Amino acid sequence: MSDIEIRDDRQAGRLEAFGPGGDEAVGHLQYFVLESPERALVPVHTIVEPAHEGKGIAGSLARELYGIAAREDSQVAPLCPYVVKWAERHPDEAPAAAPELLRAAKDWLKAHPEGF
Protein backbone atom coordinates (compact mmCIF):
# COMPACT_ATOMS: atom_id res chain seq x y z
CA MET A 1 0.00 0.00 0.00
CA SER A 2 1.58 3.25 -1.10
CA ASP A 3 -0.28 5.45 1.37
CA ILE A 4 0.80 3.39 4.40
CA GLU A 5 4.07 4.05 6.20
CA ILE A 6 5.53 1.24 8.30
CA ARG A 7 7.85 2.04 11.19
CA ASP A 8 9.86 -0.43 13.24
CA ASP A 9 9.81 0.31 16.98
CA ARG A 10 12.33 -2.37 17.96
CA GLN A 11 12.34 -1.39 21.64
CA ALA A 12 8.58 -1.90 21.87
CA GLY A 13 8.71 -4.96 19.59
CA ARG A 14 6.23 -3.51 17.12
CA LEU A 15 6.00 -2.75 13.46
CA GLU A 16 3.44 0.01 13.19
CA ALA A 17 1.46 0.99 10.10
CA PHE A 18 0.48 4.64 9.81
CA GLY A 19 -2.13 6.05 7.49
CA PRO A 20 -1.77 9.06 5.20
CA GLY A 21 -0.14 11.95 7.01
CA GLY A 22 1.73 9.55 9.28
CA ASP A 23 0.02 10.46 12.54
CA GLU A 24 -2.69 7.78 12.82
CA ALA A 25 -1.65 4.21 13.61
CA VAL A 26 -3.92 1.91 11.62
CA GLY A 27 -2.34 -1.41 12.56
CA HIS A 28 0.63 -3.14 14.10
CA LEU A 29 2.52 -6.39 14.23
CA GLN A 30 3.90 -7.35 17.64
CA TYR A 31 7.12 -9.39 17.69
CA PHE A 32 10.17 -10.29 19.74
CA VAL A 33 13.77 -11.05 18.83
CA LEU A 34 14.99 -14.57 19.57
CA GLU A 35 18.76 -14.98 19.86
CA SER A 36 19.09 -18.76 20.18
CA PRO A 37 19.36 -21.30 18.57
CA GLU A 38 19.76 -18.59 15.91
CA ARG A 39 18.67 -14.99 15.55
CA ALA A 40 15.04 -14.67 14.50
CA LEU A 41 12.20 -12.19 14.50
CA VAL A 42 9.13 -13.84 16.00
CA PRO A 43 5.77 -12.27 15.15
CA VAL A 44 3.11 -12.99 17.77
CA HIS A 45 0.10 -10.78 16.89
CA THR A 46 -1.03 -8.77 13.89
CA ILE A 47 -3.82 -6.26 14.46
CA VAL A 48 -5.46 -3.86 12.01
CA GLU A 49 -7.98 -1.30 13.18
CA PRO A 50 -11.49 -2.34 12.03
CA ALA A 51 -11.98 0.76 9.87
CA HIS A 52 -8.84 -0.17 7.91
CA GLU A 53 -9.35 -3.91 7.43
CA GLY A 54 -9.27 -5.30 3.91
CA LYS A 55 -6.75 -2.75 2.63
CA GLY A 56 -3.65 -4.96 2.63
CA ILE A 57 -2.19 -3.49 5.80
CA ALA A 58 -1.60 -6.81 7.58
CA GLY A 59 0.11 -8.18 4.47
CA SER A 60 2.30 -5.08 4.25
CA LEU A 61 3.33 -5.56 7.88
CA ALA A 62 4.19 -9.23 7.30
CA ARG A 63 6.15 -8.40 4.12
CA GLU A 64 8.11 -5.68 5.93
CA LEU A 65 8.97 -8.04 8.81
CA TYR A 66 10.41 -10.56 6.36
CA GLY A 67 12.25 -7.73 4.62
CA ILE A 68 13.80 -6.56 7.88
CA ALA A 69 14.84 -10.12 8.70
CA ALA A 70 16.48 -10.50 5.29
CA ARG A 71 18.36 -7.20 5.65
CA GLU A 72 19.57 -8.26 9.12
CA ASP A 73 20.48 -11.78 7.97
CA SER A 74 17.94 -13.19 10.45
CA GLN A 75 15.17 -15.74 10.21
CA VAL A 76 11.46 -15.29 10.88
CA ALA A 77 9.79 -17.82 13.17
CA PRO A 78 6.10 -16.96 12.83
CA LEU A 79 3.78 -17.72 15.73
CA CYS A 80 1.10 -15.24 14.64
CA PRO A 81 -1.60 -17.17 12.74
CA TYR A 82 -1.94 -14.41 10.15
CA VAL A 83 1.80 -14.33 9.41
CA VAL A 84 1.89 -18.14 9.19
CA LYS A 85 -0.83 -18.04 6.51
CA TRP A 86 0.77 -15.09 4.73
CA ALA A 87 4.11 -16.94 4.60
CA GLU A 88 2.42 -20.03 3.14
CA ARG A 89 0.96 -17.85 0.35
CA HIS A 90 4.30 -16.09 -0.30
CA PRO A 91 7.03 -18.75 -0.09
CA ASP A 92 9.31 -16.74 -2.40
CA GLU A 93 9.36 -13.88 0.16
CA ALA A 94 8.98 -15.92 3.34
CA PRO A 95 11.44 -18.78 3.79
CA ALA A 96 10.12 -21.51 6.07
CA ALA A 97 11.54 -21.63 9.58
CA ALA A 98 13.15 -24.82 10.82
CA PRO A 99 11.02 -26.81 13.30
CA GLU A 100 13.64 -26.43 16.06
CA LEU A 101 13.55 -22.64 15.61
CA LEU A 102 9.76 -22.61 15.90
CA ARG A 103 9.99 -24.81 19.00
CA ALA A 104 12.52 -22.43 20.58
CA ALA A 105 10.27 -19.44 19.78
CA LYS A 106 7.26 -21.15 21.38
CA ASP A 107 9.32 -22.05 24.45
CA TRP A 108 10.57 -18.46 24.78
CA LEU A 109 7.04 -17.09 24.52
CA LYS A 110 5.76 -19.57 27.08
CA ALA A 111 8.52 -18.47 29.49
CA HIS A 112 7.95 -14.73 28.78
CA PRO A 113 4.18 -14.22 28.30
CA GLU A 114 4.21 -10.64 29.64
CA GLY A 115 3.31 -8.08 27.02
CA PHE A 116 1.85 -10.61 24.59
Kindly state the percentage of residues in helix.
25-40%
Distinct helical segment count: 3
**Euclidean distance between termini CA atoms:** 27 Å
What proportion strand? 25-35%
Order of helices and strands: EEEEHEHH
Low-pLDDT stretches: none
The largest beta-sheet arranges its strands as 1-2-3-4-5
State the shape.
Answer: globular
Overall pLDDT confidence: 94
Largest beta-sheet characterization: 5 strands, mixed
Number of strands: 5
Radius of gyration: 14 Å
Q: Which structural category fits the helices and strands?
A: alpha+beta
Describe this protein with a few key phrases.
116 residues; five-stranded mixed β-sheet
Characterize the structure shown.
The chain has 116 residues and is α+β, with helices and mostly antiparallel strands. Helix content is 32%, strand content 27%. The protein has three helices and five strands; from the N terminus they run ββββαβαα. Helix 1 links the parallel strand 4 (40-48) and strand 5 (75-76). The protein is globular, with a radius of gyration of 14 Å.
